[in-house]
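Give me the fold.
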Amino acid sequence: MFMEKNIVWHSALTTRAQRQAALRQRGAVLWFTGLSGSGKSTVAARVERALVEGGRAAYLLDGDNVRHGLNKDLGFSPADRDENIRRLAETAALFADAGVIVLVSAISPLRAMRARARACVEKRAPFCEIYVKASVEACAARDPKGLYAKALRGEIQEFTGVSAPYEPPEAPDLTLDTEVMSVEACAEAAFRKAEALSIPSDALLRTAVSASLEAGRAIMAVYSRDFGVSYKADSSPLTEADTAADGIIAQALRRDFPEYALLSEERADDRARLENPFCFIVDPLDGTKEFVKKNGEFTVNIALSYRGKSVMGAVYAPALDELYFAAEGKGAFYCPRASEAEDPVARAERIRVSERRENLILMVSRSHMDEETQSLIAANADRIADTRPSGSSLKGCLIARGAADVYYRTGPTMEWDTAAMQCVVEQAGGVFRQGDGSPMTYNRADSLNKKGFYIINAAQNQLRRPQR
């Protein structure tokens, strides 16, 4: 007790975010639980190999292996088993805090044990409970270590599944049924979980925010003077601000995250991106028509997609000096006067969509109003209290902030028009779908969104389609 009172936590000079930035990944713990012989270690070992071959820092903490060293003083009594799991959790948490993806393979038979392990790890990193499911009969038939035969002969006491209980997870983050799924399928599913958890959201957001602000300064330098306008093959305008911002953003993203693919409106499409699960999707100047009109309603959009889903987004309106950003599982944030902030990420406030279910505020495009949208508005006039025009992805951001409730775009758009905005909307609690109600996906072979899309603050606020 005297020693405990005199032990003081020593704070490091390096932050968790800095360690993650150095490894370009976020530490995480994937906890494989299941009966002996269920396939935990086999699957976890394959996941570790796939992660390391893919350039990730990963380490497998196997329950049997740690009993040769760290836990060799422990037996198999209930108290010793509890201590075994406690030490495993503490060790895994330290590895994850260093930025490593940790794969723990341990029977961990009781739900209370696993709950304590989760609580320990989640102080520092994400925790994913993976239930490697197999019946006692299947495990006994496999019996790779000959343990079930010994337990059934009474040679091993307190053997999980035979003479000691195993409590299956009630709500695991992932279930791998090794009686149904192949080892390869199980490893692929767990690998995808590990890959998603390793996304270094903090470092990504800081890079994206910094790049968007720097791009915004370049855009405003052009905006403040006379500039020329050229037109692309699709008749959309192009200015030197578009190309300057694109160069700034591409340089920052490739410097900090060279392993991720890049799709940008203003550069040639490298089709190798289709083989990469991670892809930055960039519109260096969304709303060039508004930029040319000098009404201030244009944005810089930077998003990251993972296997087709937008998992990070930063939207900066340089003329308004307003910043929006979000990341999967972290929420959505808003920072006014972003260029004045020493740390706009830290200063930002969390935002949520409104709770309005009537007297809705409808956003409309300042440059893309069409007859179909006008008919939609007319068919829902009884539900709409106000209509507000705006340009670029500001419309979605205003819904995310609760300043409006609904936006429908009936015409086609491109991936870079929506990717960053979608993450902000969804992390703020809103709904973002294609016009037919299907999910919007990214890093596709065809970057054109042909179905339109809608954004609503709540599912029940979907507008009625007019009768044809």
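The two ends are 79 Å apart (CA to CA).
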